[in-house]
Amino acid sequence: MVITQVLQILPKAVTTTKEIYYTANTVVCAGGLSRQLLKSSGISTKLYFTHAEMIETPPVDIQLRTIVMPANLKRFQLEADSTKNEELWNQSDLEMVPPILDAGAVQFRDGSLRLGQISRAITNPHANVDSKQSEAELRASIGKILPKLNKLPGTWHHCLVSFSSDALPLIGLIPEHESVHVFSGFSNPLVIVPPLAQRFADSVFGIKDEIITKLSPVRFQNLS
What is the SS3 string spanning 90-104? Predict the structure, then answer.
């Protein structure tokens, strides 16, 4: 196992800051950075990303006995609206649609909480976000449904969340690019990533799988 920065993906090879690694297959599973990495290698794909923001608290005595989330997540509509015009994603620092806030909370076994989340569809994966304003908005929204939580000490965090235009992940060989696969687009990864990773690995070694076939990037090529 080698941990290093990838510069470019080539047919049956990967260029890094250390050296060139030659390989029979390359799998891109870089989450929200997958689109940028593939684009820098001259590979277009129907992958997108949102900027997700949340607050992480230290372990607290308050016990949250369930996951709290909206019945209808606005994030899914934001994802759908932001992918209506593919060409706009080639522009830098463009906010595709207004940001949304889905108020919710989840507690981990150590007692710490994650309070979120704000989602933004900005084409620059390195876009600057006003963390203070975002945290204030998050706390105000959480305070309306869980008033005991909005004053807890916590740290604002930001990450990228990858998704596709049909809300399903992209798994498999990228059309017209020999040996380059993708395993990304999991906007809700907690439950489905482990079993799909095993199914994908088996499919690479020749085991046919109907589920992996349906999640192939080829499906978007067939629609165009």
Answer: HCCCCECCCCEEEEE
